[in-house]
Amino acid sequence: MPNPAPVTPDAPTVIGAPLLTQQWLDLTFIHWAVQPDVVAPLLPPGTVPDTHDGLTFVGLVAFRMDRVGWLRLPGVPYLGTFPETNVRLYSVDAHGRRGVVFRSMDASRLIPVVMGRLGFRLPYLWSRMTVRADGDTVAYRSSRRWPGPRGAHSRITVRTGERIGEPTELEHFLTARWGMHNAFFGGADPLAFLPNDHPRWPLYRAELLTCEENLVTAAGLPAPVDPPVSVLYSPGVPVRLGRPARPAGIPTP
Questions:
Q1: What's the first-to-final CA gap in the chain, in angstroms?
Q2: This model's pTM is above 0.70
Q3: Residues 98 and 91: beta-carbon distance below 8 Å
Q4: Mapping DSSP to helix (H, G, I), strand (E, B) and coil, where does residue 139 land?
Q5: Chain-centre distance for alpha carbon 146
Q6: Domains of the chain with bracketed CATH
Q7: Is 153 in contact with 137 (CB distance < 8 Å)?
Q8: 151-201, pLDDT tens digit by residue?
Q9: Residue pLDDT, tens place only, 2-60
Q10: How many CB atoms lie within 10 A of CB 204?
């Protein structure tokens, strides 16, 4: 694999004609450090674990998706607005593009779940979910309904703290991810890279008050043993997603 592109807090390219627009709101980022060989078998062919100081990370990200819209059409207020909780890994491809790989994407609207699974081949799962904010405390709840494993759940509560003036290199690495790797297409080389852009993250320190979950193990990963290495909160950003670019894997001669 070539050297990865630099980690940049701002999107390296601006998406002028987005495929999708949306807002990601009330996000909590929880991360555990793991050895790269733990997650390597779970990544798509053509990618390897992206690392920081020799380690890679498992992310549990809870948030509210808001007003998903196609192309330049206005976002949809009901079907395009719902809680979501993702388990994600960190990847880099043969072209040096850093991204994320989603192992699971729990969401509370059935139609977007079905569209995400069929149209984008993403691991969306239908769950009962709530996000409630009370002062400086935000609580996220989820319980999986379909397709399973039924009963996979999460209960996360954080207390937000001070705004981070200058995020660390690790905090940029975990949050400034400008695309996803996924098998959007069929065929012999299905891997593709779907880029995104958004304003620089407003990040806050966060105290993890509750974290009872089995989404990580349901996604095929070992249960976290040590405390998270990073817990962050963001009120959110508007996001534009571009069209999948293929191939993202190892170029053929």
A1: 15
A2: yes
A3: yes
A4: strand
A5: 20
A6: 20-241 (2.40.400.10)
A7: no
A8: 899 999 999 999 999 999 999 999 999 999 998 876 555 789 999 999 999
A9: 688 899 999 999 998 999 999 999 999 999 999 999 999 999 999 999 999 999 999 99
A10: 17
